[in-house]
Write a structure and sequence with these properties.
By secondary structure, this protein is α/β, with parallel strands linked by helices. The chain has one helix at about 30-45; strands at about 5, 15, 50-55, 60-65, 65-75, 80-90. The N and C termini lie far apart (about 35 Å).
């Protein structure tokens, strides 16, 4: 696998590799840290179909297929919010049927 995309974390613990089940984290980053994270993610996406996202306490290695789904959601009002979501999907199995 290529380089890791590291999210800042101020805890010093043993890193757990997540490969199954459900995992979710919400992390609040500065503008500069967000830009750095997105650059590292972009480099991994450009180089290969393998990603590794990590912090000091966890890492998620993931192989994905194209296309990558990008969802943009905007909610206006008193507290407007813009959400950008990237969805990477694992490759399909090698047992696909084909007709020639």
């Amino acid at each position: 696998m290529g380089d890791r995309v590291n999210l800042p974390d101020d805890r010093d613990q043993q890193r757990t590799t997540v490969t199954d089940g459900f995992f979710e984290r919400e992390i609040h980053l500065s503008r500069e840290a967000t830009a750095s994270f997105l650059r590292e993610l972009a480099d991994q996406v450009e180089n290969d179909t393998n990603l590794t996202l990590s912090s000091q306490e966890w890492e998620i290695p993931f192989e994905y297929r194209e296309p990558v789904e990008v969802e943009v959601e905007f909610a206006g009002g008193r507290e407007a919010e813009l959400e950008v979501e990237f969805e990477f999907t694992e490759p399909r199995g090698g047992d696909d049927l084909s007709v020639e």
